[in-house]
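User: Modeling request: complex.
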Amino acid sequence: MSTGPLATPVEESVLRLALMNRSFLFGLVITALIAAMALISFVWTPYDITNLIVANRMKPPSAEFLFGTDHFGRDILSMIMVGSRNSIAVAFVAVGIGMAIGIPLGCWAAARGGWVDETLMRFNDLVFAFPALLSAVMITAIFGPGAVNAIIAIGIFNIPVFARVARAGAMALWPREFILAARASGKGKTQITIEHILPNIVSMLLVQGTIQFALGILAEAGLSYLGLGAQPPMVSWGRMLFDAQTRMMVAPYLALFPGMAIVITVLGLNLLGDGLRDVLDPKLRRER
Amino acid sequence: MSLLEIEKLKLDIGGTPILKGIDLAIEKGQVMGLVGESGSGKSMTALAIMRLMPHAARASGRLTFDGIDILASTEEAMCRLRGDDIGMVFQEPMTALNPVKTIGEQVAEGIRWHTGANRADAEARARQILDRVGLPEAKFPLSRYPHELSGGQRQRVVIAIACALKPKLLIADEPTTALDVVLQKQILELLKDLVDEQKMGLLLISHDLAVVADMADRVTIMRHGEVMEDGETARTLSEQVHPYTRQLAQASMHVPDRPHTTAASSTAENLLEIRNVSRDYPGRRVSLFKKGEPFRAVNDVSFSLKPGQSVALVGRSGCGKSTLARMILALDHPTSGDIRFMGESLLGKDETALRPFRRNMQVVFQDPYGSFNPRHKVERLVSEPLHLLDETPTPAARREMVAAALHEVGLKPSDMEKYPHEFSGGQRQRISIARAIITRPKLIVADEPVSALDVSIRAQVLDLFADLNQRLGVAYLFITHDLTVARAITDEVMVMHDGIMVEEGGTADILDHPKSDAAKALVDAAPDLHRAIARRLQEQG
Amino acid sequence: MTAFLLKRLLIGLATLLVASMVVFGVMEVLPGDPALLMLGMNASPDALESLRQQMGLNDPVVIRYVHWIGGLAIGDFGRSYTYSSPVIELIGERAAVSLPLAIMSLVLSTVIAIPVGLYSASRRGRLSDTLAMGTAQVGVAIPNFWFALLLIYVFAVWLRLVPAGGFPGWGAGIWPGIKSLILPAVALALPQAAILARVTRSALLEVLGEDYIRTARAKGMPRSAVLWRHALRNAMIPVLTILGLQFAFLLAGTIIIENVFYLPGLGRLIFQAITQRDLIVVEGVVMLLVATVVVVNLLVDLAYALVDPRLRVRT
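Assistant: Request completed. Predicted assembly structure:
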């Protein structure tokens, strides 16, 4: 018999497992560092990036400018720090949109079944038929480029993702005996969803959340690279790569560091998600 | 020299000892019964013989098969033994076969692997052995896939795989636990015949003394990784020298004390009345434009239940008894017919209108692990039905009611602070019962409430059910395929078969003198320890 | 099986139909008058009006939709305002770049990922598994366009092995064409291969924990034989799902990669058409891409049915 997505609620031991899990630890440390970097950038950066000093333009990495400077003479390290805010904000809000709409939809479909479920599945088919980046390009093209529209474009694609995960998790729980017992106790579907279903799928949703966060950062970078995301003077990693491309011959470091920032951030989030899954998924912990 | 000799076998997994010095010997052609409750290490013993233990397992001691030192053998040598000289049958037939390969491929695979036979020859042999295990070519061609077979049929395929090369030793780990009693009997008979024909040794692992008494020449009784007693079956089980053997035997034949019984003829009003209830499920689509014939799970069933009465609804798996139970609990709707509880029809009522009825009708499920939300404490779990009361009790009153219910089922009030995983299976079933009685219902529907429990714990839980029936006057509807449960604790029995109620009457009447074929088959197939021992003793003279 | 596939086919067609409405509706609300765009700002109102009449822009929305969808059905995608040539011709030209690119990267990603996944699963927990999966973990995190920039720098700028961008056209011969697609294909494929390898490994490990694997082991089959004969086919089901999703992802990925390498493919076509408000081109290419995704999903469903007999319902 399948044990489904239920974990035993031994919070202390989950914490202990988490601290023993290498992926989780690495992921947590990286993610925390990136978050700290974004926060620090509000109060301090090595150089002021709004101040364009032509004399400093295109300086390769040195003790003075750790990651070098761009064609306006701005410090790359400072720009990466400031750019992290944009990446995090876009991905965070996009995941928020996906969760806020997708999870209730998925839970509703699982609880209600029938045509509601069928309609949701067909809606998912429809959204998935548009390759994500394509629809993002279309949306930003319609409403004009900009960070907010990038958020909406990425967020819309997150809705069916979370709806699908929530639905699958809830569907596996509904026939379980403890749900039947709750129904026999006269609890309605909404109440059961809130009391029994959600707490038991929250770990799956969390794991999916970190994955979508990472994908969101990649997608934002891609859109900004195409010129459809954040617009100058707003700094974003993707835009920095776009600017770097034409100067690749003379200054390859321009492309190196923003890309590394993306890779490290995404890697950290993915490790965190993997670690969370290992820690929270009882299937992998099943003793035998 | 014996076929299999195990001496001082020790095994631990990640430092936790599982086997603590097992001794066991099986002669050629002998049937050895290995009995024990969960956690006794009986399955691990079997896996150790096959050297298929989990990665982290470390074994020491002596384990020889046919003169070969198993623990010292290379993996290549073990591969030559497995499936050729030692075959194994597992507990769960539904998952033991690869879903994407035909049964022919799966049976022939081992034959080809070991004998190097070409495809045609291997398939011919596969056909032979499948025919022998009761899956004749005409009805079950080699091209069938596992999902096209029932559980019993799949277990026959697994047996065919294990016996295809006439092994010297067959290991059967709870081969019938997942099957109903009628299938159990068929599979056990098949195993017995195969063992006799092919002169195989058989290691039969079971938690059921009656099954082992019927099948085995010798028994070994295990507990907590140690052998308690071993010896010739009839003598060991009849003399019961070892206290644990006696405890097991008594528990498996236990009948709780129930001084007053409520006869069906009493004049009281009916508590529950089922009138001509049927339930159809839509059939699988035949094609895109044509729906399949609907499947009738419950067909025109009628019966009634008096207050305080204890009734068993018995039948083979898939007979519709669980569907009927769900409809009684208003978790599913009948296609036609009426269900009346406390004089009123339950049909067409919404959740609010159902509240007074739900309060008086609670449920206990089979799986003591699956019936609780693992994230809630016992207090919250047991008090869940309290929200059916018209006035929500204060937190203090609530705790008091939970404490009282826990006391009623033999648990401590302080247990309400714990999580369900901190309890054993039997204790969890007590918590289920506490939850079921907290609103003082008039009826409890219990779906196989003891079939997942070890025998000694099962006896205690049956006692608890009997006691609550006597003290609180709550009526029971027990859904079960196990006739010993019905005999132990019910006044009346109803037998279902293919959705139809085929027989009903007093428990003793039906179990001693069944009239319908379905009831006869159930009674005939039910393992009975007394009968098995008596037969063995008689055979020995 | 036919019932299952027929159902999927119907769902696919319905998806296409709804998708066409969405695309048409979205383009409908977009600002910009195609006639004005074609004639320029200085056009006389009369000329404008007659062109609008000619283009059917004054008809009701429903009529225009039916007209458009009817045209699509018979392969008439309309005429581009900016290129002043039939959209279908533009698509044909550009698909000759994008399709080989997508297929090359899909093949590359599969050929790399499946063996790596198999190898890792069979050596679970050993150093080689840890290394392979660590690499894959990093690979998943790499944005393909950045990876493309690195490839350009190393192989085109530094080593000068392949062109840094552009496409000579198939008319210049097969080899120069393929040569200019190698870097784009690698850039697209490697991050995808990392994902696929991880999925393959975890699907295999999941299957290896199943009861029927123990049955096969009890038959005397060694671990490696069980992996090949029993685990692989069952593990293909999640792998196929990911492959299907990846194809859609690759198609979209071409938009960005074609921009990096200045390849005249569909992605670049749609990107330029969007910036130039050449809506009829956008509509046509989007519908083509959506249809491709739907067809690929159908193929994945067909593959499911071939792999898993439980979907082949006997009737």
